[in-house]
Amino acid sequence: MSFECNFCGGMFSSKYNLGTHQETAKYCLTARELTSTGCACENCGKEFSTKSNLKYHSQKCAGRTPAKIQAQLISKAAEINEENKKLKEKIKNLKIEISKLKIENANLELKNAKLLPFLQLFDILCKYK
């Protein structure tokens, strides 16, 4: 004998399994228009469909008070700010290096422009030897 969930159509081998399903499956809870399951985290207020899910979450959530979370966020923001300063300094140094290379390139182009007539003359002289 099998039992069908009248909310989602799922089939279950026992009435007990059907009852457990209807009390814990989020789709069925929503279909039944239940807003609270009675399994809410004391730290953050998040609701869970089963006590085991709540227990698992609570182990992770324990000690995560708003003050601790804020302190972690401030610390992370300080790390990001420091990294941002380092990257800005690196960008500044790279811009300086690019400027130096542009000047060096311009100087080389100028030297090449001055040497070009001599190179052309050299090529002509080499052809007549």
SSE layout:
Blueprint: E1 3-4, E2 11-12, H1 15-24, H2 26-31, H3 51-61, H4 66-127
Antiparallel strand pairs: 1-2
Structural description of this entry:
With 129 residues, the protein is mainly α. Among the domains are: 1-33; 39-64. Helices cover 69% and strands 3% of the residues. It has a two-stranded antiparallel sheet. It is elongated, with a radius of gyration of 37 Å. The mean pLDDT is 83.
Short précis:
This protein has four helices and two strands; from the N terminus they run ββαααα. By secondary structure, it is mainly alpha-helical.
Pick out its properties:
single chain, 129 residues, mainly alpha, 4 helices
Rg, Cα atoms, Å? 37 Å
Number of alpha- plus pi-helical segments = 4
Q: What is the N-to-C succession of helices and strands?
A: EEHHHH
Which structural class do the helices and strands define?
Answer: mainly alpha
**Total beta-strand segments:** 2
The parts where pLDDT drops under 50 for at least 5 residues are: none
Shape: elongated
The percentage of residues in β strands lies in: under 5%
Overall pLDDT, averaged? 83
Spatially, the strands of the biggest sheet line up as 1-2
